[in-house]
Task: inverse folding
């Protein structure tokens, strides 16, 4: 038994010794094709080195890589080796069979196409960054066996595995892809890519990073999508804003309405102007800081109905960038007033650039994932060359270095070219787009409250001249109340609050209780005190009502300054006695009463009809007085007689009169002299008229 154990141990030692002399699989020359057991691959993150006093995790990181390799070119890489030393280590590469489906990018390859001979790791030169420079030259044709280049006959996307080996086996392994271009790429249409940089104040690509990318790629037709939340930052930092505007150059800058509004929902309730106003307000605010937004392109995160499409077309929009996470097909909506093209940002591809690694691993993984994205696009290029729009929301967690890699690749050309957003949209015009039947947001419950608020706002806009909340600011509050972020109850509450605030802003005019006033003249001016408790000038209309008093300023518009003001009104009394004058302050359109008071006015002047009556009475008195004087004079001319004589004479006279014929009577004794009476009457009327102008006519009895 003892000898049997010794024999087994000896056999194990012999087998280990033999295995240590076998060359690694990667160093076997002439391997063109074959199957490799996928389970033989170890963790790509690296392996644990058995050398040294303590175990150390060693890794191979990708720093830079040629994005596209010509048919007879070279794949140049820069690799960072985290091991302590390069002595005694070798580097080699397995080239796997090209992939034909995007999903294969994420799978472990199994079919080997070729293998690059190993070379000493210490023989590699270093870049300025300290990374190792490693090249894989390729050829597209057969050549003598001593040609060091690797033969790749067909264009395509070839997965490659780069390995670092030592005495104990594989120490680290790195997976990436080699994109081999066609032999004559000039004869093949380039794959159009329309890059979109979504700049935001939240997590993601900020202004500083965007300026770096724009300056690094001045000729790349990028479309810059700005979040409205950037406005405060741009306003507060003029230097940053100027640098951003300069970096933009002539490139398209787009932004949607600051608020999350649904144009289709607004069109459904007959309020299309709200969305147009929101767009105009957003454009105006960006223009104030020197950034001009493109009017024909807007981003939108909601579905579109026919009504919504008509609204957007009427607002001058031609292209909608659909930002919905699960957007449908792209295409064009044809309406009577024009057409609207829907394009979609490809978040599915850009998602491959997202990283959630530690800071130490992020740089390497960002570069690796950027080249993985290029490989995905190259695979798609083989089947579908319709434009791909990269960017949008997918940039919110993409590392800046990954974006630089992708943009560098687009700048270099190869098999892809950067297109403008208009070019991407043109390819969609042949595809019909069916609008939604119903909007995503239902605003039917807010129709009446919204109309009520609009009516009060229109009144307030005419009422306010300066100071206080601006109608534009209140309009923004209304738009905020229509946001898709609010539920129906919150919207109704918001509208009720806005209307209440508007009514309070109208309730700033007051009139004191009207005093009792006595008029000594028919026309005069009386003061009215008006109090304006607002912070600015207000425009109102004055209204006066009375059955005996006429006011010249009735229905006139006046401006009321803040504080207490006094204005004079010109009144005319139409009759003597006590009258009531109702004073009302109204809005300009007369729809709302702002304040009222009542004056008690007693008139002691003789106006209008009183003059006529007084004049007639005066004429009567004058005539009666003249007749009395004449009669007195006639009686004075007769001689004095005794009482009997007088009585006899009187009786005799009466008898004589009775006997006398009517025609024989002296008319001058019975009828006053007409001409004389008229002269005296005219003189009396002239005196009355003169006194009337002085306002102190006096009646005599």
Result:
């Amino acid at each position: 038994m003892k000898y049997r154990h010794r024999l087994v141990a000896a056999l194990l030692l012999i087998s280990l010794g033999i295995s240590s002399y076998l060359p690694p699989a990667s160093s076997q020359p002439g391997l063109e094709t074959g199957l490799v057991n996928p389970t033989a691959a170890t963790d790509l993150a690296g392996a644990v080195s058995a050398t040294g006093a303590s175990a150390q995790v060693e890794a191979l990181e990708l720093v830079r890589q040629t994005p596209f390799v010509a048919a007879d070119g070279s794949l140049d890489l820069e690799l960072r080796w985290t091991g302590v030393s390069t002595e005694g280590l070798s580097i080699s590469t397995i080239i796997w069979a090209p992939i034909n489906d995007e999903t294969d990018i994420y799978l472990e390859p199994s079919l080997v196409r070729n293998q690059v001979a190993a070379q000493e790791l210490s023989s590699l030169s270093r870049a300025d960054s300290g990374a190792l420079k490693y090249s894989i030259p390729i050829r597209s044709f057969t050549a003598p066996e001593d040609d060091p280049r690797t033969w790749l006959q067909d264009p395509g996307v070839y997965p490659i595995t780069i390995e670092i080996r030592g005495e104990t086996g594989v120490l680290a392994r790195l997976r990436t892809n080699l994109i081999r271009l066609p032999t004559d790429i000039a004869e093949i249409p380039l794959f159009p890519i329309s890059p979109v940089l979504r700049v935001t104040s939240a997590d993601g690509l900020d202004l500083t990073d965007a300026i770096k990318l724009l300056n690094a790629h001045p000729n790349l037709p990028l479309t810059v999508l700005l979040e409205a939340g950037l406005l405060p930052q741009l306003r507060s930092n003029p230097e940053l804003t100027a640098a951003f505007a300069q970096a933009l150059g002539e490139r398209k800058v787009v932004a949607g309405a600051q608020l999350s509004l649904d144009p289709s929902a607004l069109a459904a309730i007959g309020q299309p102007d709200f969305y147009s106003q929101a767009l105009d307000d957003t454009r105006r605010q960006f223009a104030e800081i020197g950034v001009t937004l493109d009017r024909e392109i807007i981003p939108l995160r909601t579905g579109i109905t026919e009504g919504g499409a008509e609204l957007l077309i009427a607002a001058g929009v031609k292209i909608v960038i659909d930002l919905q996470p699960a957007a449908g097909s792209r295409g064009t909506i044809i309406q009577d007033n024009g057409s609207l093209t829907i394009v979609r940002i490809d978040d599915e591809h850009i998602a491959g650039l997202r990283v959630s690694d530690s800071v130490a691993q992020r740089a390497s993984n960002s570069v690796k994932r950027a080249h993985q994205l290029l490989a995905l696009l190259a695979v798609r290029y083989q089947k579908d060359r319709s434009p791909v729009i990269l960017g949008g929301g997918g940039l919110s967690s993409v590392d800046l270095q990954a974006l630089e890699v992708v943009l560098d690749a687009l700048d270099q050309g190869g098999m892809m070219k950067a297109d403008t957003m208009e070019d991407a949209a043109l390819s969609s015009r042949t595809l019909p787009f069916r609008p939604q039947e119903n909007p995503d947001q239902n605003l039917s419950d807010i129709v009446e409250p919204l109309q009520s608020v609009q009516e009060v706002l229109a009144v307030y806009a005419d009422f306010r001249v300066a100071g206080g909340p601006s109608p534009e600011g209140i309009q923004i509050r209304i738009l905020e109340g229509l946001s898709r972020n609010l539920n129906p109850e919150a919207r109704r509450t918001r509208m009720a609050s806005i209307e209440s605030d508007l009514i309070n802003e109208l309730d700033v005019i007051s009139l004191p209780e009207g005093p009792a006033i006595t008029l000594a003249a028919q026309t005069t001016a009386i003061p009215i005190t008006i109090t304006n408790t607002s912070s600015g000038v207000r425009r109102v209309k004055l209204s006066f009502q009375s059955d005996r008093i006429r006011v010249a300023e009735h229905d006139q518009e006046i401006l009321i300054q803040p504080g207490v003001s006094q204005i004079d009104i010109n009144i005319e009394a139409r009759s003597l006695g006590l009258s009531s004058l109702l004073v009302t302050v109204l809005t300009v359109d007369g729809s709302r009463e702002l304040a009222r008071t009542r004056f008690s006015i007693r008139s002691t002047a003789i106006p209008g009809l009183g003059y006529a009556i007084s004049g007639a009475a005066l004429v009567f008195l004058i005539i009666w007085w003249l007749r009395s004087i004449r009669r007195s004079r006639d009686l004075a001319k007769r001689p004095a007689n005794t009482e009997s004589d007088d009585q006899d004479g009187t009786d005799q006279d009466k008898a004589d009169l009775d006997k006398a014929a009517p025609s024989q009577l002296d008319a001058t004794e019975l009828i006053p002299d007409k001409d004389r009476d008229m002269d005296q009457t005219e003189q009396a009327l002239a005196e009355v008229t003169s006194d009337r102008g002085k306002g102190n006519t006096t009646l005599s009895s």
User: Anything to note?
Assistant: The chain has 18 helices and 29 strands. The radius of gyration is 51 Å. The CA atoms of residues 29 and 248 lie 52 Å apart. Confidence is low (pLDDT under 50) at residues 1-56, 642-650, 659-675, 688-701.
